[in-house]
Fold these 2 entries.
Entry 1:
Amino acid sequence: MTTATATALSVDGLDAGYFGSPVVRGVSLHVAPGEVVALLGPNGAGKTTTLETIAGLHEPMAGTITMHGESIVGRQTHLLAREGLALVPEGRALFFGLTVREHLRLARSKDGVGQQELLEMLPELDKCLDRRAGLLSGGEQQMLAVGRALISRPRVLLVDEMSLGLAPVIVERLLPILRRVATELGTAVLFVEQHVAFALEIADRAYVLTHGRIVLEGPAEQLQADRKLVTASYLGEAAADELSETANNRSEERLL
Amino acid sequence: MSSYLLFLILGLGSGATFAILGLGLVLKYRSGGVVDFAHGAVAMFIAYVFVNLRSQGVLPLPLIVVPDHIRISSTGIDTTLAIVISLVYAALLGAVLYFLIYRPLRFAAPLTRIAASVGVMLTFEAIGVLNFGTTSQTTPPILPTTPITIGSLTFPSDRIFFTGIVVVLAIALWLIYRFTRFGLATQAGAENDRGAALIGISANRVAAINYVIATVLAGAAGILIAPVANLDPTSYTLFIVPALGVALVGGFRSFWLVALAGILLGMGQSEIIKFQSQWTWFPHGDIPDALPFILIILTMTTRARSLLARGEAMTQRNPSVARPKNPMASAAFCLIAGTLIMLLLQGSLRNAFISSLTVVCIALSLVLLTGYVGQVSLAQMTFAGVGGFMLGHISHGWGLGFPFSLILAGLCAVPVGILVGLPALRLRGVNLAVVTLGAAFTADALIFNSQGFAGGLVGLPIKPPHLLGIDLSIAEGHDYPRLIFGIMVLVVVILMGLLVARLRRGAAGRMLLAVRSNERAAASVGINVPQAKLMAFGIAAFIAGIGGALTGYQQGTLTADGFATFASLGLLAVVYVAGIGRISGAVFAGIMMSSIGLAVTFLDERFGIGKYQTIVAGLALIVTAIANPDGVMSTTTGKGPAVLYFKLQDAVVARIHGTVTTKTPAAESEQPAEARPAVEQPHHV
């Protein structure tokens, strides 16, 4: 596929974890500029740990992480953020006492996205610019978290489970924004998502992470076509057979 | 009429000081969530830096024994230059304090953070006393003092300038923190440091800068007040009480409210002095000093929500709590060992051992209240003092004999304890510490200063104890201190220890610990949280009162200086260092660390180093809070000697049983120390 210099983000042989115990082992992945890549996997697979380690929130135990060919291992989070690596974290990490406008003002870098341009992408934020983040609804908060990451015009955008605790309607509205960001800003997007179907709809490619290892990777269409393989990587072969059988039966029933 | 106005204007001096100190406290809280009890102590130190530079050209260092100053010029130096150097000094000091102490404690439990800042406060106060002495110093005015005359009123203009500076500062701070990017970044970093990092803000750096600014403000406060009020280490350090009061009025947020409250408080205090001289019916006593406390109580009860505990990403672990295994056996051991020590020691050392026991008693009350229930009390010596002085009144005035007089004296402290504990129903953590500090400060001013209650400078005579015709008094002829008195104290303190152990082991103990861990969770399983807290305050006050009464018996004529605010702070320091979650911690604190206890007295007699006790206690408190919050006597966690001992034991046991199974050491080190004997059994099989 892409060569090392053409990738925006490249992770190779990454071991990461907590207090000396690795959670993620030997993870290698890469994202090209303008590409949208999904990182899938069951609970506890190590998706969040992977993203947070890339963003510099944890020290990797082994492996390399490069952004546009430059190693970023060991660099502090706030410095990485200034160099164009943005993470929309689990739990959003908003400042509840600050207004939406203040969030955007704080996060905007010199050559960042203009507020108008951002509000075109996230029109929902327009009506609550002067409201404090703590008073926003869950969906609005997530929009703000994404907006806060986007306004610095990141070169690499990491998004951790945007859909957590949100209604499917809102998720359907939120996920396509990632595609737009990749196309319009040329950002490399790596996102974690539990809704496999949604994720594969918008992603170019996907990785499946189970028990800390990448067990499956490929173009989104291919994975979409072979759902049984994805299910198997989540739950194991036997369960997948059983599940897909019942699923097949059900769809057949529906057809009948 | 004009003289009333004059006192109001004169009050602007102290008012502006409270305001500027309060502004610094607000900054520290807004940026790092720190309520810094050492703020006044730092202001005091910088004031000394300024005064010494100006009058002698000497730059004092925050050190003792080793050269504690640098001579810059043989005569004094220019005032402006002295101010600039002092403020730069303050900035450096702030940076050092932040990176050494407050940064490592960013995610610590409130108790740990309070302990650390009290440690800083004690350390600076001790350095002040050692290096500069307790006699107050004066320095010529800095601001122009040309009298201003308006109508029939003539007053010095420096108060007006000082107030003007404060108002300008408050407005400037408001503008900076409301409208600049730095202000927003401060708030963002304080609220969510991870979120701040993700948008390129180093919360740590922002907090450090704020801390430096706040320390410079503290220094400015010290410098500006020095010509207005006499400079001495203790009273400047205790400026923290009114400063906390005004910071509370502003909810630790609003700069202009804090400035206004500070100025009004200073004017109010000044005006009360005028009232007291003018109107005979106006209550006498040290009402002005009680005013900040009244302010604190009023604010806390009306707007307790304004200073909420912060939610932080990391878990805030409280110091560990021990469960006494076999209290009766420990009590018997303590009785025998204590009697032997009492027999071995003579004269002043035996007396010091008895003093140690009284401290153990008061320390036990802190173990119960702060260790088990997590209610930080900075007023424990106040309860002890109430018990002690009540014993004097009971034994002389009411004709009640031992042991009833002792018990009644302890009971007299209970209502005081409950009264101070009442705010705890709405407050927790640092807020409660603020209230109890205010209570201790006020008790100093109102109760212990009163001639009638505490006997003034002479002290209050206490009738020696007699029981069933046996004379238990401390002195008989040349025999001092008598063995039998020591044994009596020992028995009473052991009984108090048994009381605490029993509480801890029973249902009450589980209830109290549940309250400490999580009040909501405790309430959800049917625990009456207010009742549990008040019970803890009541019992703790009783135990402390007994301790104070024992001190009364020991001294014969009880004076108030042993029960001052700083005694309470010192007590928290030694008990926290020794291990606030365990009875052995109280024992260790009383015998090994208390300034009047056995070890310090011994060291002082041999080497003359007793005067360093406060600074050692202060530093030990800081180090303990950062590195070993469980204290010296911890057996299960942390870095105390007992932990090392058990680790060594583990290693030896593992070596012996190593041939049996290789898994032993790993499996065993996971177990808490108490459970170890039971676990070891299978290995022999």
Entry 2:
Amino acid sequence: MPARPFNPALAALREQIAAMEGESAAAREVLPFGVPDLDRRLPGGGLALGCLHEVAGGGNGAVDGAAASCFAAGIAARLPGQVLWCVTQADLFAPGLEQAGLGPDRVIYVEAGDDVSVLACMEEGLRHGGLGAVVADVARLSMTASRRLHLAAKGSGTTGIALRRWRRQQEAYDFGQPTAAMTRWRISVLPSAPLPVPGLGRARWLIELIRARAGESLDIELEACDGTGHLGHPAVLADRPAQAVGA
Amino acid sequence: MLAGRVGNRRLVTAACAVAQELGLTVGMPVSKAQAMVPNLQVLPHDPQADAASLERLALWVLQRFSPIVTVDPPDGLVIDSTGADHLHGGEEAMLETLIGRLVMSGVTARAAVADTWGAAHALARHVADPMHVAAPGTTEALIAPLPLQALRLPPATLASLRTLGFVCIGDLLHQPRAPLTRRFGPDLCRRLDQALGHASEPIEPLRPSELVEVRRSFAEPIAAAETIARYIGKLVVQLCAALEERGLGARRLDLLCWRVDAHVQTVRVGLACPQRDPQRLTRLLCEKIETISPGYGIEILSLTAVMVEPLDARQMASSLLEAPAPDLSGLVDVLANRVGARGVYRMAPVASDVPERSVTRVAPLSDPVGAGWPDHWPRPTRLLARPEPIETLALLPDHPPVSITWRGIRRKVARADGPERVFGEWWKRDAEMIAVRDYFRIEDEAGERYWVFRAGDGENSETGSHRWFLHGVFG
């Protein structure tokens, strides 16, 4: 799917809309993923900081949220400052997060009883302004709640990531409901590339950008976060000749 | 053994466990005890020191367990745990923690929870071994078989009751009250009613003079949330001024609301580091207003800094240096008071190969640990609270499974890596002396990656049951 050609009229319209929304597009900072194919599609060339983003797992990942939390940890790891992680069930394994780049000293966990208090804690973290990122495992995220979180994130410049995770796979249809989040991602696991010897290669994900405000959606197959939180091109693509990478 | 003077006789007033085993009892003349046990160590009884140390103990309980504590001389403490037990995981868990902490510091204690002070007093001294939790509403049945000493009566009354043939509390419960009152005075029936909960017995909370306390009484009882919030604000300003005078910062605050019907509602907030910033403290307290039930109105509000620590003015980093790290203590306090202090934590590594033991929770604002975990083996992002048994098809001794069935779904294993052998920690438990777990990373045909292990090394059945478990999910 080729990227749309740059249209000055559209860009002017976008700026006008951004001005009406009370945010100047130029002032917004972004966090590039370091994957040109992905960054080119995101408005501003990366993940917008100081916004709310939504991440969910595909398939069984909707229940265990393992790949999605790895993806969120990779983003949080590349942002400076402490990270607040709000959960309802404490099943995150800190050594696993460290292998996605997020060391134990950087994460403060909050174990709240239910979804409502998780959202309240997340909002509190976003409003504080001294954190690098706030991640929360939430199941239900209404338009009102997400709007509150988004405004809180915009006010302080802290990036919020709502990690959508449901008790049962059937409840994942909730992910189709509209929210105020800037982007919406679905991370599904894919079989890894076979190795010449018995063993497991680097995990591979299908990263779907389902929705991006002022951007286009996209499907891309990438390798999971490395020890610094960076995604990688699959080996077969990474070894293409230089001119092919730009295409 | 301690000896005290009662009248003109020297009697044994306390004896340690060893002495009691030798046949010494409290109330025995000292000369007789010395005759029974040569080389007996006799120390003089010092009631004032006893009272002082009991008060110290009460203060310790006040700081750690419940806002309303007082001493019950000569040898007891009364704790009103209403609204405080859930912070320690329920009544039973609270007693266990309390007794455990006391035993560790060398104090033998017995404790009971009951509906009333009188009943708890009786149960702690005559039933608890070393603890007893009475279900609500069972007071009468529980205290009926107890001896009369449990009623907190003067010795003269006890002796004459015994002469009349009364042995246990149950004998008294169904006697006509009028003759008893005429003979023994109002005390006996009052004690009975207090034990059964028919008469109220307020606990006057211990407030040692060194505690910083401010209080405000209202001519007209207050009940509205906004009014309470306004007066909390005023009290906090007073408290902070008092703290500043002494160079202290509060670590724990108790707000006691005395209602017109003599009930006390308590609010307790904790702080991660000493504070005396009125705004921050007011905010923490006001968030808890919804937990106060004002009933017919509140007539006294009192605010106490139960735990304080020295707080000196600090020099701020100048802007020439690198930007100071953001202060997260305010956020941590708000979150900790919302979800409970145990709900806010950071993870720190522990030197252990057993996955569930390799992490520990530390306070959210503790110093950075620096090092992480060794990273030569991949670790899952989600670890199940306890390993779940799975059905597998696998070759012994060291092959990964060919297929697994987890939560009723069968998955064929496409690729696998392992085993990573984890040995039991023989220095922790005897059962782990030769225990072994073999961990495998497996990937099914859809690409889902799991962390499974087999209990045992696959050859020797003493090393484990050879059953398979799923322990984590990789991202």
